[in-house]
Amino acid sequence: MKTLFSQRLKQLREEKGLKQAQIAEILNYGSTAISNYESGRNEPSYNDLIKIANFFDVSIDYLLGYSDVKKYNYQYKLSDFYKCFEDISLSDALKIVASQKGI
Fold first, then answer.
1. Which residue segments constitute the domains of the chain, with CATH numbers given?
2. Is 25 exposed, middle or buried (CB count within 10 Å of its CB: 0-12, 13-18, 19+)?
3. How far apart are CA 16 and CA 25, in angstroms?
4. Does the predicted model carry a pTM greater than 0.90?
């Protein structure tokens, strides 16, 4: 049974102009793995979802059909987030976090 995952995988593969066997080789899968995913016969493991999402540079949410956004464009890097807290004490930071979580 075809799923949104199987449809999106096929679409992404075709957008890159690659054959199923080529993707399987690149991702170090058996020769029929991509065919089985695209037909809906098999579903990928969690680790394989990550591998496929990374290869196509899309989010797992997109692959699974939970979002139509291929890749979230985050404005800040994690290191930039940490810089926001360089000049405050730990107790003040915990107060900020607690107030945001309603604790």
1. 4-64 (1.10.260.40)
2. middle
3. 15
4. no
